């Protein structure tokens, strides 16, 4: 395939207009030593039919949620995505447009982003939200960097061990190169929640911020009231990280608990799993911190005739103006994914979000109860949860092949990240897990 | 463009009005014109020390940020707290209501390095000429290069 | 309240927000009630999401469809944005990415259940390495800027192991803003190097700035003036001699395929923008992907997990103790990687080389058509983009901004404006290879017409645009009194 429309006649005419004899004249000035070695050694191009065949063959080798039954969460969730979402984001006017630096011809993207920012504020209970960042993990890291900008003179960052392990890795990578930051890990207790007493003891006047999952990686709902109080006593900022934002349709949101910064991963709201990307990170905060926010912000304004319009604003925070003093280096973000989420949240709306969240919560709780009672699996934690929970599964190494033979992936092993939990399995149940699947899951665990 | 007589001016386009040992500081009409619509002002806290020729704050327009440099050293005794809500005051009245900070000076000699209104007006003219000359030089060099190429 | 529209004038149409539409109790979501209890303790429970929209499905579709009509896009308009490479986004890429065997994969399922995905990723790494002339690639970074930060962290890790991470990064004055921003995030100070009067970097300038305190030089090639940094090999030598490394911002790779490989230029590490050179859609601001390529001496520091080929297939390995760690969750923007892979096998070596050749042909053609009307600040040959300024139009008081806005009335997205900063009033034009000669001619004619308008009816240009859904917006107001969300009770 080639997408270049030039015929030999086109080329000849254009070269003549330029005033050169041949194409080679256009690259004469490039050192010959470089030109000689530049040939690309790859197979030749294919027809569209051959391309589709090859892609289907590669896709066909993978276990997908279409043919397998997944009980997998851990930061990426399998939810029903209404057909209308893809219909909208497939529109070329949204998919192939550029970042809205020319607002007069980008009001579609800009208004949708403004609506997105509003929805995120409403969902998280926070006062201001940006137009999205790369993913939940970088959102967590950016939250710490933002706390660093705000809390001059404080250098200790407290991160819960019950926060998603990959998010903790990304935070560590971002902070590694900044000499003035100390990363302190806060353990979790037998209930599966962050050890608030440990945190309260450790927070001092050098504490910059505390970062916890809400719900955390184990699916446990943290006690934000206690965490807020502990942070208040020391003047630390509280940042929450939500990997399953559908939970916020049923849970009191971070803003209601007084969080300073609330971030997370938006994939579960309208974006396919796609092996974990692309998705988007959402990022919300209290209004007083608005000038420290990373990423793009869309604001409302008017044109000369008083028509309402939307523009990118507070751009002086960003890399293209502030350069080395920018709040972040973000340029291209995840706009189309944020749009998918905006359409998703609009379709579900107030009623639908609640209904979907309830289906998840109820189905997960019933499944957990059956697994404990009928399959004899021991719950690992006692804290309240949304649609994910951790069970202790003895002899998982031997048992897994039975599940795979039935095309079931019943959960995520935690031992690679938490050696202190050798038998733990993180199980997620959503509306996409039908009753028969759950029945099969219980029976297989029960050895029947 | 207006440069009031009673004020002193710095090379970085700040103005200073001295009352006893207190220096009132803002940016000049030239500076606000170059910046365009001011949208945000970053100001120091009362009590902070400012050092001559170091930045003490910043002025933002939609597309640019400019540091503001202290023309004298001292401690900040007052800050114009109407500016956060109404940053456009700097555009509308740069020498009056658009004042930024008041500094209790530590060394009156700092004023010696500043210009008076006439000197500042000349300074701006000079800057403009230098910019034009540089452009012409580049044009001349380009012309010469073109001539050389033609000759080749 | 509905009002008759003024015959096709989109400016009179009201555009309510989703929060200003709908009706209480409405939803587009149908799912039967689930038996059982939520089991969320009362003190943790939420009543409702106040303010969330309540609309039916057709209502929602109409809302967003109408919004889409307000956008320019590649499929409707020519988008000559310099350094953005707004080429055609092939539809077959979208078909591939949506295949369930890619779209419905969970990243935490056992690797042995996703051999096709790992094979795709490994092959993509190899293809990018071949095109860029590098030895290894990571696909984790989510965008070019994240790629830059990753690349700088690799440099830092490499130098730290040798005893001293050093303190400075040299960045040309023509560099994209992400370059200095990323440097700061990596704990480095930025030192700017001036390009010469023709817009390229001379080795002497690098020599003067280079010291044992400099970790790396970041360079874009071709640079943001669309000009090939012809001294790059000598420059790389200057940097290497003092123990520093060379980072290439690969944003302009579309000019180089089959023409020159960064790996042969002395580059140690680079990032590539898949949403530029490799056709993945811009989406109104992402998602993109910013893979990073390295020479062998930096391989050990790459983010983990790395994909390793085994006799059985491919494995994910974390046992790289010198790795800088993770920069993004899971596997990066996999859906974007699938699209880029599809594009690369579609084009093959012949198609990719032709893409760069035609990108250069189109850019030089436009340069020729415009050079008698607009001022060309650099005499250096252009590669895939050319830069003009508004100098010739300024006599009428017309600026680059005005020209850009007037282009909207002609149905073209403007070029990149006011960048690079070294040129006053820059207009950076990158047509890309997927445009026809006729489109280029139409664009050139529009630009020439606007230049004439600038002389004869400058008011028309200075008050443009006139036919877009909104006129020029008050950006000062948006920055002074930011309104970043809808609130109940706000007037529309």
How are the SSEs ordered, and which strands pair?
The complex is a heterotrimer of chains A (448), B (152) and C (492).
Chain A: H1 8-18, H2 32-36, H3 48-60, E1 69-70, H4 83-89, H5 92-95, H6 107-124, E2 128-129, H7 136-150, E3 156-160, H8 165-176, E4 182-186, H9 196-202, E5 207-213, H10 224-234, E6 237-242, E7 261-265, E8 281-285, E9 298-302, E10 308-312, H11 319-322, H12 335-373, E11 378-379, E12 388-392, H13 396-405, E13 408-409, E14 412-413, E15 424-428, H14 435-445
Parallel strand pairs in A: 1-13, 3-4, 3-5, 5-6, 6-7
Antiparallel strand pairs in A: 2-8, 7-8, 9-10, 11-12, 12-15, 14-15
Helix pairs in contact in A: 4-12, 6-12, 7-8
Chain B: E1 8-9, E2 14-19, E3 22-27, H1 29-35, E4 38-42, E5 49-50, E6 55-61, E7 65-69, E8 74-79, H2 89-92, E9 101-105, H3 117-151
Antiparallel strand pairs in B: 1-2, 2-3, 3-9, 4-6, 5-8, 6-7, 8-9
Chain C: H1 57-68, H2 91-97, H3 100-103, H4 115-132, E1 136-138, H5 144-161, E2 168-172, H6 178-185, E3 189-193, H7 203-209, E4 214-220, H8 232-241, E5 245-249, E6 269-271, E7 292-294, E8 306-310, E9 313-317, H9 334-370, E10 386-389, H10 400-409, E11 416-417, E12 426-429, H11 437-456, H12 458-462, H13 475-480
Parallel strand pairs in C: 2-3, 2-4, 4-5, 5-6
Antiparallel strand pairs in C: 1-7, 6-7, 8-9, 10-12, 11-12
Describe the structure.
The complex is a heterotrimer of chains A (448), B (152) and C (492). By secondary structure, chain A is an alpha/beta fold. Chain A is built from 14 helices and 15 strands. In chain A, the strands form 4 sheets. Chain A has a 7-stranded mixed beta sheet with strand order 2-8-7-6-5-3-4, sandwiched between helices. In chain A, helix 8 links the parallel strand 3 and strand 4. Chain A starts with 7 loop residues before the first helix and ends with a helix. Chain B has 152 residues and is of the alpha+beta class. Helix content of chain B is 30%, strand content 29%. Chain B has helices at residues 29-35, 89-92, 117-151; strands spanning 8-9, 14-19, 22-27, 38-42, 49-50, 55-61, 65-69, 74-79, 101-105. Chain B has a 6-stranded antiparallel beta sheet with strand order 1-2-3-9-8-5. In chain B, strands 4-6-7 form a 3-stranded antiparallel beta sheet. Chain B is globular, with a radius of gyration of 19 Å. Chain C is α/β, with parallel strands linked by helices and 492 residues long. Chain C has a 7-stranded mixed beta sheet, with helices on both faces. Chain C has a 3-stranded antiparallel beta sheet with strand order 10-12-11, covered by helices on one side. Chain C has a two-stranded antiparallel sheet with strand order 8-9. In chain C, helix 9 packs across helix 11. The longest helix of chain C has 37 residues, at 334-370. Chains in contact: A-B, A-C, B-C. The interface between B and C is small, with 15 and 7 residues.
């Amino acid at each position: 395939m080639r997408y270049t429309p030039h015929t030999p006649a086109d080329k000849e005419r254009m070269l003549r207009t330029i005033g050169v004899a041949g194409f080679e004249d256009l690259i004469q000035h490039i050192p010959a030593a470089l030109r000689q070695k530049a040939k690309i050694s790859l197979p030749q191009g294919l027809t569209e039919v051959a391309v589709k065949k090859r892609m289907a063959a590669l896709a066909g080798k993978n276990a997908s949620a279409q043919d397998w039954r997944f009980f997998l969460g851990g930061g990426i969730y399998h939810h029903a995505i209404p057909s209308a979402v893809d219909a909208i984001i497939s529109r070329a006017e949204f998919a192939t447009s550029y970042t809205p630096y020319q607002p007069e011809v980008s009001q579609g993207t800009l208004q949708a982003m403004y609506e997105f920012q509003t929805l995120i504020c409403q969902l998280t209970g926070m006062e201001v939200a940006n137009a999205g960042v790369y993913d939940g993990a970088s959102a967590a890291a950016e939250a710490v960097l933002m706390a660093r900008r705000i809390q001059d003179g404080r250098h200790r960052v407290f991160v819960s061990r019950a926060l998603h392990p990959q998010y903790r890795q990304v935070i560590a990578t971002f902070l590694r190169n900044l000499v003035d930051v100390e990363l302190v890990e806060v353990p979790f207790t037998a209930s599966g929640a962050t050890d608030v007493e440990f945190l309260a003891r450790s927070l001092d006047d050098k504490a910059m911020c505390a970062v916890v999952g809400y719900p955390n990686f184990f699916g446990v709902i943290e006690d934000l009231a206690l965490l807020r109080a502990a942070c208040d006593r020391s003047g630390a900022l509280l940042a929450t990280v939500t990997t399953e934002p559908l939970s916020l349709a049923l849970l009191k949101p971070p803003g209601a608990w007084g969080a300073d910064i609330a971030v997370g991963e938006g994939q579960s709201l309208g974006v396919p799993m796609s092996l974990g990307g692309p998705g988007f990170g959402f990022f919300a905060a209290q209004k007083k911190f608005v000038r420290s926010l990373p990423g793009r912000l869309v604001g409302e304004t008017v044109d000369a005739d008083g028509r309402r319009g939307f523009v990118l604003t507070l751009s002086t925070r960003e890399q293209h103006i502030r350069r080395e003093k920018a709040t972040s280096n973000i340029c291209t973000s995840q706009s189309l994914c944020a749009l998918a989420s905006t359409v998703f949240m609009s379709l579900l709306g107030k009623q639908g979000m609640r209904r979907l969240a309830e289906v998840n919560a109820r189905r997960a709780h019933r499944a957990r109860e059956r697994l404990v009672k009928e399959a004899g699996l021991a719950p690992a934690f006692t804290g309240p949860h949304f649609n994910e929970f951790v069970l202790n599964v003895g002899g998982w190494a031997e048992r897994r092949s039975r599940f795979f033979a039935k095309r079931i992936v019943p959960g995520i092993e935690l031992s690679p990240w938490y050696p202190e939990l050798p038998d733990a399995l993180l199980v997620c149940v959503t509306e996409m897990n039908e009753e028969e699947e759950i029945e099969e899951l219980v029976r297989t665990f029960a050895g029947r | 463009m207006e440069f009031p007589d009673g004020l002193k001016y710095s090379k970085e386009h700040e103005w200073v009005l001295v009352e006893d040992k207190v220096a009132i500081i803002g940016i000049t009409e030239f500076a606000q014109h170059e910046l365009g619509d001011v949208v945000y002002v970053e100001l120091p806290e009362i009590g902070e020390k400012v050092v001559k020729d170091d930045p003490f704050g910043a002025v933002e327009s939609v597309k640019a940020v400019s540091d503001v440099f202290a023309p004298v050293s001292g401690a900040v005794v007052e800050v114009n707290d109407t500016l956060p809500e109404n940053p456009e005051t700097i555009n509308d009245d740069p020498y009056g209501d658009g004042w930024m900070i008041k500094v209790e000076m530590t060394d009156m000699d700092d004023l010696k390095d500043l210009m008076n209104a006439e000197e500042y007006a000349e300074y701006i003219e000079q800057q403009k000429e230098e910019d034009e000359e540089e452009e012409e030089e580049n044009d001349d060099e380009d012309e010469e290069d073109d001539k050389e190429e033609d000759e080749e | 309240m509905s009002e008759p529209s003024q015959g096709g004038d989109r400016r009179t149409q009201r555009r309510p927000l989703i929060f200003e539409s709908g009706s209480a109790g409405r939803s587009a979501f149908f799912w039967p009630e689930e038996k059982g209890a939520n089991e969320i303790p009362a003190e943790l429970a939420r009543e409702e999401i106040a303010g969330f929209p309540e609309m039916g499905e057709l209502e929602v579709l109409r809302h967003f469809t109408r919004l889409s009509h307000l956008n320019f896009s590649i499929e409707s308009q020519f988008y000559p944005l310099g350094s953005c490479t707004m080429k055609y986004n092939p539809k077959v890429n979208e078909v591939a990415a949506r295949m369930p065997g890619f779209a419905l994969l969970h990243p935490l399922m056992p690797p042995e259940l996703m051999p096709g995905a790992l094979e795709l990723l490994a092959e993509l790494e190899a293809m990018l390495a071949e095109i860029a002339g590098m030895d290894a690639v990571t696909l984790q970074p989510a965008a070019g800027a994240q790629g830059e930060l990753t690349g700088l962290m690799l440099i830092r890790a490499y130098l730290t192991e040798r005893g001293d991470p050093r303190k400075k990064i040299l960045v040309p004055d023509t560099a994209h803003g992400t370059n200095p921003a990323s440097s700061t995030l990596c704990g480095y100070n930025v030192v700017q190097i001036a390009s010469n009067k023709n817009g390229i970097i001379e080795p002497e300038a690098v020599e003067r700035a280079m010291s044992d305190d400099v970790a790396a030089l970041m360079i874009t090639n071709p640079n943001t003036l669309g000009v090939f940094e012809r001294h790059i090999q000598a420059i790389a030598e200057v940097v290497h001699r003092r123990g520093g490394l060379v980072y290439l911002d690969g944003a302009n790779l579309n000019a180089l395929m089959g023409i020159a490989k960064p790996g042969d230029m002395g580059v140690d590490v680079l990032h590539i923008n898949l949403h530029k050179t490799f056709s993945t859609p811009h989406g109104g601001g992402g998602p993109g992907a910013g893979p990073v390529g390295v020479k062998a001496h930096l391989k050990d520091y790459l983010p983990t997990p790395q994909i390793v080929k085994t006799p059985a297939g491919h494995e994910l390995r974390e046992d790289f103790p010198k790795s800088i760690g993770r920069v993004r969750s899971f596997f990066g923007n996999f859906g974007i990687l699938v699209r880029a892979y599809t594009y690369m096998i579609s084009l093959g070596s012949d198609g990719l080389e032709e893409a760069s050749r035609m990108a250069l042909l189109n850019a030089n053609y436009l340069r020729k058509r415009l050079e008698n009307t607009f001022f060309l600040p650099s005499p250096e040959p252009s590669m895939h983009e050319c830069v003009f300024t508004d100098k010739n139009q300024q006599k009428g008081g017309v600026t680059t901004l005005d020209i850009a806005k007037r282009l909207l009335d002609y149905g073209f997205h403007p070029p990149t404006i006011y960048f690079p900063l070294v040129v006053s009033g820059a207009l950076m034009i990158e047509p890309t290879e997927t445009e026809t000669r006729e489109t280029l001619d139409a664009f050139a004619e529009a630009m020439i017409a606007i230049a004439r308008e600038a002389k004869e009816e400058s008011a028309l240009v200075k008050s443009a645009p006139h036919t877009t859904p909104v006129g020029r917006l008050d950006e000062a107001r948006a920055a002074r009194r930011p309104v970043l969300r809808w609130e109940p009770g706000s007037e529309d």
